[in-house]
Design brief:
heterodimer, A: alpha/beta, Beta Polymerase, domain 2, five-stranded mixed beta sheet, two-stranded parallel ribbon, 7 strands, B: mainly alpha, Cytochrome-c3 Hydrogenase, chain B, 2 domains, three-stranded antiparallel beta sheet, 16 helices, 8 strands, globular
């Protein structure tokens, strides 16, 4: 099999997208390309389909909330960061794509058309972090109940606890759980 | 008997309309039947609920519903310092807690640039491979019992018991040991551990032969598993399937080989591959992994180096108890590390390891302080459950049970 030579992901995306690549972060040997949210799907498809890159495996999508209890967003351009972790089986290397998403309009295009694996990963983020994925085929909540309020992984969401059930408050608690009675 | 009749408010108010687009049009007219499987069904391996659209016995659509075991582990870790969070990671994939420890510890070590001594790395390899064997034994036992082969289950649990006893020797706990810590392992191997491990390795290969005698060429087993739940390599990759389930489809990707960690590059072992990507091939791959894991443990014992079992970088690793009586620095480090913990830079790392189920990834983002900003675990069961609908397309319900068993899911791992 004729394997084309590996390309440097930073150089080739910069030539293809120019200003679209807003920043390149090198930290602990990991490369992160920062792009605008509306560019995510385009860059991801380019990374998967270009000879010499072939990032064919979507390892993970995760989101970070940069909100600080003392105020501010830790010096980042926007409150949320969505990180995509790609892996290239051919060249055995990883790459992270990162998009900073504003609190007022937390919308990123979906990757489900490129990798079906993104389906649940994005649903989880939409559920836990409240970031919407435009064009997602199944935007229901994934982990939390459908009638849940709020997004638990946001940093301003309190940790919370479950009330311990004693005989004096048992009735009160069971009111919230009609199906637990049997 | 208490009456279980539901009042007006308690009855399900929803309708099929909520599922429009996810199920076929035939379900809307009532031509096909919607059926709930789980969350209390034994063959769903925990609390997985599958919403099935059935045409007779044939599965038209399968919609997995997860979250019943969601315990907010990732959220909880944000409120703990780096070392104290290790105990929470045990509880995700409860059949191989050491793998979770490993993914998390490696992420912390990468974030703060902490080195692990060679002896600790070899000990880690031993316990990781023991976890792989223990986890595969539970998988084999439950997979077989799902298909009606009762006795395999008993044999598998007999051997797993020996491994759990060894874990108890190491960490004092049979399952949730939290034995791996950032910088190494919690304590050195106990004197009784290596003899126990030797005697286990002496009998184990014969036991694998026993399981194979019961299943591998058993015509009933072959009928139930061959040609069932086929997933093509490119489809498996697109759906993020990893680990033995991916290798069953013939894709040669094992993170222990591709991106070696903890000194895996020094061990000789094969990566078994399947050809057809069906339930039977996934079964064969895992059976062979049992043998390969015993080979790795054998090599690790033979080359087990002396030296430290945990890094002595006192900015990250608390000093042993004995030092506290003699050294003022030790007292200070002890106090600092057990109250405040160490700080990690405001950056992000992603580390992945090959767990018994597949790729466990740990995404860790520091704040510059002593607690992480965000921890996210990419867990193999999560991706595999998402891929179950692809594998079950146009199969019988009985095959669905075989397929769930073959991808080896743990719901604690999935829901976190």
């Amino acid at each position: 099999m004729n394997i084309p030579n590996a390309l440097d992901p930073v150089v080739s995306t910069k030539t293809a997208f120019g200003e679209g690549i807003q920043d390149v972060i090198l930290f602990r040997g990991e490369t992160t390309l920062v792009v605008a949210p509306f560019n995510v799907a385009k860059v991801a498809r380019y990374l998967r389909d270009t000879n010499g890159l072939i990032y064919n495996f979507l390892s993970d999508i995760s989101a970070v909330d940069y909100w600080e209890p003392t105020g501010g967003i830790s010096g980042r351009p926007a409150r949320f960061g969505v990180s995509y972790h790609f892996y290239s089986m051919l060249y055995n290397r990883r790459l992270r794509l990162k998009a900073f998403v504003d609190e007022d309009e937390p919308v990123v295009p979906t990757l489900t058309t490129i990798w079906p694996a993104a389906n649940w990963l994005e649903r989880e983020i939409a559920d836990m972090m409240g970031i919407k994925f435009e064009g997602h085929p199944d935007p229901r909540r994934l982990l939390m109940p459908d009638d849940w309020n709020g997004h638990p992984h946001r940093r301003d969401y309190p940790l919370g606890y479950e009330t311990i059930q004693f005989s004096f408050n048992a009735e009160e608690i069971l009111k919230h759980k009609p199906f637990a009675r049997e | 008997m208490v009456s279980t009749a539901l009042t007006q408010e308690q009855q399900w108010q929803g309708s099929l309309e909520e599922l429009r687009g996810l199920v076929s049009e035939r379900a809307m007219t009532g031509e096909t039947m919607m059926l709930n499987m789980g969350p209390h069904h034994p063959s769903t391996h925990g609390v997985l609920r599958l919403l099935l659209e059935l045409d007779g016995e044939e599965v038209v659509t399968c919609l997995p519903d997860i979250g019943f075991l969601h315990t907010g582990i990732e959220k909880n870790i944000e409120s703990k310092n780096y070392e104290k969070a290790v105990t929470l990671t045990d509880r995700m994939d409860y059949l191989s807690p050491m793998s979770n420890n490993m993914a998390y510890c490696m992420a912390v070590e990468k974030l703060v640039e902490l080195d692990v001594p060679e002896r600790a790395q070899a000990i880690r390899v031993i316990v990781l491979e023991l976890s792989r064997i223990a986890s595969h034994l539970v998988w084999l036992g439950t997979h077989a019992i799902d298909m009606g082969a009762m006795s395999v289950f008993l044999y598998c649990f007999r051997e797993r018991e020996k491994i759990l006893d060894m874990f108890e020797m190491l960490s004092g706990q049979r399952m949730m040991g939290s034995y791996l810590r950032p910088g190494g392992v919690w304590r050195d191997l106990r004197p009784e551990f290596l003899p126990a491990l030797e005697s286990f390795l002496a009998i184990f290969p014969a036991k694998i032969d026993d399981y194979e005698k019961l299943l591998t060429h058993n015509p009933l087993w072959e009928d139930r598993t061959q040609g069932v739940g086929i997933i093509e390599p490119d489809v498996a990759l697109a759906w993020g399937v990893s680990g033995a389930s991916l290798r069953g489809s013939g894709v040669n990707w094992d993170i222990r080989k591709a991106m070696p960690y903890s000194g895996y590059e020094q061990y000789e072992f094969n990566v078994p591959l399947g050809e057809h990507g069906d339930v039977y091939d996934r079964f064969l791959v895992r059976i062979h992994e049992l043998r390969e894991s015993s080979k790795i443990i054998r090599q690790a014992i033979d080359r087990l180096p002396g030296g430290l079992f945990r890094s002595n970088n006192r900015k990250f690793v608390p000093p042993p108890r004995a030092e506290l009586g003699q050294s003022m620095e030790a007292v200070i480090h002890h106090f600092k590390l057990w109250t405040e913990g160490f700080s990690a830079p405001d950056g992000e790392v992603y580390v992945s390891i090959e767990s018994p189920r597949g790729e466990i990834g740990c995404y860790l983002h520091g704040t510059g302080g002593n607690k992480p900003r965000r921890v996210h675990f990419k867990t193999p069961s999560f991706m595999h459950i998402a891929a179950i609908p692809v594998m079950t397309q146009n199969h019988m319900i009985a095959d669905l049970v075989a397929i769930i068993g073959s991808v080896d899911i743990v719901l604690g791992d999935c829901d976190r």
